[in-house]
Amino acid sequence: MQDYNWSKFSLRIYINSDLAKIYYLWTTQDGLEQWFLRKAETANPDKSIRNRETHMQKDDTFVWMWHGWGDELAEHGTVLEANGENYLKFTFGKAGTVNVKLSSKAGASLIELTQENIPLDEKSKVNYHLGCNTGWRFYMVNLKSIVEGGIDLRNKDVNLKTVVNS
Question: Which option is the CATH number for 10-149: 3.40.190.10, 3.40.50.1980, 3.30.530.20, 3.30.1490.100?
């Protein structure tokens, strides 16, 4: 697999919802905690914490924590771009950058996620390329499940380890 590009991957999913709702779910603390995170905290460049329902802005920083994991597994990052409508780009720890592009297609919202600038050492290939790819697939399906059916698939029990939904 010499020609395989380990520095990035892209995923796409259609969700039966309008763009404004999907953008809210990706860019607010309240929204992110509905489908993705146990805790999402976003700070303005002046370090004051954003309102839970206010969209992230360029140069904001964040701390994210997942269900099923302790506080020691927190992700810190910076919002690189956020246009208030259909595009978000942020750093994702040591795993590179993530771009989220939203568009309307056939009466649904198309989410296109690309994680890039993934380091190319063997540990990063496994942890970030394969691990993040698997994680994003689950969380994007969970977003679809919550928006279209109201069912949250996340494992919220820290005592249940090595399961596909945490």
Answer: 3.30.530.20
